[in-house]
Amino acid sequence: MIPLRDAGGRLPIFPFAVYGLIAANVIVFLHELSLAQVCGPVCMDGFISGYGAVPYNLVHGIAAAGSPQPFFLTLVTALFIHAGWLHLLGNMLYLFVFGPEVEYLTGSLRFIVFYLVVGIIGGLVQTWAAPGSHIPTVGASGAIAGVLGAYLLTFPTRSISTVVPIGCFPLFLRLPALVVIGFWAALQFIHAGALTSRTMEDQGGVGYFAHIGGFVAGLVLIALFRVRRTRSARRFRYHY
Which domains does the chain show, CATH number per domain? Predict the structure, then answer.
């Protein structure tokens, strides 16, 4: 399922934090591409290894070459690094669709703190699941999973315009958030449950445990961060 838009209508605030985070992720990714153009994949790989969250390094207090100081700041910098265009665009689409409503509930500054906190928790859970892994964990997925958890808890019945690929044909549906986000969450738990201890150590693909950690953190922590009541979607029927 590919979400396109929620049915809440136009927000009474401008989601500065969501768009700012999207811009920051795009800028960092363009910097990654510029490094690859200047000195090849070696520079790009060095950047990812230095600023990505490497579970083994975090467990043993090791600061890799080029890492920020103190070393545990990689749990933050890793949230802004992506492995490719599809990785970046997929994450930013979910943040664009589900982030503004959560930002409305929390306020912009509190949303940024919420985003970083759930992202860090996701990185810590991934580190706990694969403490011996030398593969950098990168991407905003853990933080965005927290946003999804907050959205699901607050707007479970909100309609989401969604594309469901059926073979080569797109099927456009309006589905409740409980189905769209619930389906995504179920996949994370299924894939995480299928991993063995060895595959977690060698895993170079999707950080399912970071997703689960961020998602659960979002479910729990949104109650502490929200400062506004849920608005009525009917009041703002016009769309942007």
Answer: 2-236 (1.20.1540.10)
